[in-house]
């Protein structure tokens, strides 16, 4: 059991909160300093100075190397194996990672194609082969590292630390979801759509947490998160998003907030949970999500 295995860990509980709290404090400081600043203008100025790919690397590289910081901390400070941080299984199930990745990648591509043909006036064809191929290489390397950092930090280290301290699955589920949402406060999407977009960020964190608890490991969350950010960045960009890239399409519509929030959180994610539950034969939902954690 992913959370129950914390009874075998020997590190002092406070060590599980050092990295998540430090990271969240950095995000809060960033948010405070960004208040009163037009984030879109800052991104545009950066792009003008070092180009789209340069700005993308500048933004994502610190998060991409963050996964190595988490692995180092867990391995050498907490004296815990990376496998136990990843899963309750004897070894990491890469088939689960790839299944989740390709499932969500396929759905994302289909939804983008449908949106394009339904309202083509909302999109501009942005494809430039040479620039796209260069960005493709950068994205394939950096984005999975970035998303893995967030999964290992929130659904891994923080969730296991909360399980160790509180013995409560619901607390271990909810607090990382909220912190995951808060780390996006400085994103330009918040300024464009409004604070209501936090429902999407926190809801996504909740969805990823449910995947982790029900499947007893991070594999499905790792695959989904990588597909969400990578395929999204390759397919569509917009002037008001955090990731502005050499994507295939550019969205020139005004976001309403309803599609970006209601459809994924209340329709698509529950359907995905249903699909995963059938594929991996999940059961005992109440105990896995709301029960207590045995440390005996």
Fold and architecture overview:
The protein has helices spanning 15-34, 39-77, 82-86, 94-118, 129-166, 169-182, 188-193, 198-215, 219-235, 258-279, 285-290; strands spanning 123-125, 236-237, 249-251. It is globular, with a radius of gyration of 19 Å. Strands 1-3-2 form a three-stranded mixed β-sheet. It has one domain. The chain is an all-alpha fold.
Structure described in brief:
By secondary structure, the protein is mainly alpha-helical. The chain contains eleven helices and three strands; from the N terminus they run ααααβαααααββαα.
Topology:
Blueprint: H1 15-34, H2 39-77, H3 82-86, H4 94-118, E1 123-125, H5 129-166, H6 169-182, H7 188-193, H8 198-215, H9 219-235, E2 236-237, E3 249-251, H10 258-279, H11 285-290
Parallel strand pairs: 2-3
Antiparallel strand pairs: 1-3
Helix pairs in contact: 1-2, 1-5, 2-5, 4-9, 5-6, 5-9, 6-8, 8-9, 8-10
Alpha plus pi helix count: 11
Q: Give the domain tally.
A: 1
What's the count of strands? 3
Tell me the span between the first and last alpha carbons.
13 Å
Topology pattern, helix = H, strand = E: HHHHEHHHHHEEHH
Q: What oligomeric state is this?
A: single chain
Beta-strand residue percentage: under 5%
Shape: globular
Order the strands across the largest sheet as they lie in space. 1-3-2
Task: Please give the largest β-sheet.
Answer: 3 strands, mixed
Task: Using brief descriptors, characterize the structure shown.
296 residues, 11 helices, globular
